[in-house]
Design a protein that fits this description.
Helices cover about 70% and strands about 0% of the residues. The chain has helices at about 1-20, 25-40, 55-60, 65-70, 80-85, 95-120, 130-160, 170-195, 200-205, 210-225, 245, 255-260, 265-295, 300-310, 315-330, 335-340, 355-380, 385-395, 400-425, 430-435, 445, 450-460, 465-495; strands at about 20, 25, 50, 75, 165. It starts with a helix and ends in a 7-residue tail after the last helix.
Length: about 500
Amino acid sequence: MKKEMKKEKKGSFLDVLSDDYKGKKLGIWIGFIISILNIVMFLPFIKWVGIVNADALYSKIRTSSANIEILRSGYNAFDLLHFVQYSGFGAIGLPAMLLLLFAVATLYFQIANVVKVLRNSKGRKGNLALYSAGEGAMGFEVALTLSMIAYVAFSNARFEMKGFSLSPVVIIALIISFVGLVAVKIPQSKERAFYHDNGLLKEIRKNWVLFLMLVPTFFYFLINNYLPMAGIYYAFTNFNFRDGLWASPFVGFANFEYLVKAQLWMLTRNTVLYNIVFIFLGNALQIIFAIFVSQVAVKWYKKTTQTLMFMPYFVSYVILKVIVYNIFEYQYGVINTFVVALGGNRIDFYNTPSYWPFLITFFAIWKGIGYGMVVYLATIMGIDAELYDAAKVDGANVFQQIRFITLPQLKPTFIILLLYALGGIMKGQFELFYQMVGNNGVLYNVTDILDTYVYRVAMTQPTSIGLGTAAGLYQSVFGFILIVGTNWIVKRRNEEYALF
């Protein structure tokens, strides 16, 4: 009897959370309100930790009296690095940086949840998208508050005293976020059952072997791609080995200002324009050659052509440098030797910048055309032969078949490769430019890209880590904005071709 009563109560509570209130479920409204409260708690004047035993704490840290005057009495997740910076206590810097990144991600999910609820972002599976947004926002907030509690305990252990005290704000955020998580999860389970959506945990239990195979990949990206993101902080410091990363002088955007003065426009122009030419001209030629090869009927000639075109892809850039040098060298190069033999004057390629945009473009396309051609050729081979047979019956010639069948079928492949390429448009082919040009200052104006500039800075100024990181961060942000913008345009035109 008691069990039945409990079931009734549980069912009634579930029904209440699943009831509609002004067009939305109560569970969604609860998550929405808690997200707004959490966003308010991120405001700068609300402190998550306070400093206690200040005199004893400052006696343990290595910093000047001037810096101690700058230190504040309280901090939140966004300005803990301020304490690390001016206290000189770099031992707690890495966790503070990770906490900052975590806080940024949490704030993003809170804002995303609020925006989705206001937009009433229902999908084909009803309110599952709204529930997922609320679940993510509440889950991240719970994890962030627990991380803050752990950070305070860790820092006090490193101080060997109670230097930080936890604000009640953290506990309040933890409690209300946990309540919000429960309020979202309960009706979400009913919605999942209705739409036969398993959810992540059930999917993991069902296909645990497949997920287990993803574990090495997960740790690879975590270690090599995500944890190094904490090094972004280099871009805002004047790094020195005595103070370490977290206690080195904070210089704000000074490294970026130096980049702007160091012809950032020229570096960006060269990097972007070269990549645009490589992407569009390269893909166009790859498609053309793939179509030509697909039309060859003689099998041995077709395979030989594919092999010969693919071979340059395996030529190392060091070997490419040797080939280029021996062709264009002033005194004994192949071209100048031939020109002199014909009675002409030698051409000084390595001191004439106007030649190199064409030379670099030629060798970049020459090296990559075989690989790209194989990708498009595989797509052509996968086109249904019945389409061509029907076109022939209708009287279409070869060029019409290419125009109305082959090219439209290659469009999805081209768009996907284009989106992938645009994501790295600010990452120039360093090996190509450095090996072909080297440290020839005469050619920098037309051949210098961000990658080669950062390399030279690292080699000539080993302690200018902040400058190199600033350039890398600029590349990443530029590329991120470009790929998101391009994907948005593609999604508006045809959602099937978008990456996400």
